[in-house]
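This part of the workshop introduces the protein records we will be handling. The structure tokens are whole numbers drawn from a learned vocabulary of backbone shapes. The record below serves as our worked example for the rest of this section.

===
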Amino acid sequence: MSEAPEAAPARADCVADSAGGLTFHIADRARPGPGGHDDWSGALVLVRRGAADTPDGEVRLPLGPTADGRLQAALPSTVALPEGRWDVHVAHRDTEPRRLAPGLNDLRSLVDRRPGPSTNPLSVRIPYATKHGNLSLRSWRRAPHAEAGEIRLEDGTMAVRGRLYRVAYPSEWLAEAVVEARCRRSAAPVRTAPLVVDGPDFSFTLSYAELARSWDGGAQVWDLWLRPADESMAPARLARILDDVADKKEIFTYPPRTVSGPHGEAQAQPYYTRDNDLAVRIEAPA
């Protein structure tokens, strides 16, 4: 389906709840489908980019009327929405789905969200406007999940605080766990650092010099994970997804620090990826 918007597309307002669900209200063209006044056969159609033809690449949500005459569709947190970017459409009967434009978003419940105890996958959905002015969703579904919080940069190190979610006993999971930096180039060794644990909360300090020891002069990216001592347990990717910001890469920025490596001086800089995962880049000075 084309990313280019139609002329004067219908607009949808989005309301988020603290459990991770979304409710859509079609604010423009708020009327029944082509069949007439009693035709409420429409559906809100979510299509995952790059996966439209796969079994889990499309989700259809029934549309129904509200008291003020608009159309409404609900996406509860219990609906499993695979991770990715989902383009939002509206369709009536057998008509081709049409893209929706973003209206007003009420995402207050997502700010500083603190999910309750559960072992079910954590569902996060954040609506946003694409560069073409269309409505899309960024979806995450993770268990376990390590939410990154405050990041402090000191001489040659980064100190991170966070909280672990979606495990039965967080303090036991975190006992003897380590933070693990994995270079995207498989030839580089994995680097680890210990955690300081307080219940579900954790903190660690990562040395840039440790990451730069294997620097080859090019750009290296290190992805950060929490790895439990029990190898039967899944590791948790460090990320920041429990708020209302769909893309953090250009918003949460951190200054680079100079570090010595085998090929001279390098710059080390933490950043959030396009998926809002936490990583560190080591590269030559600009």
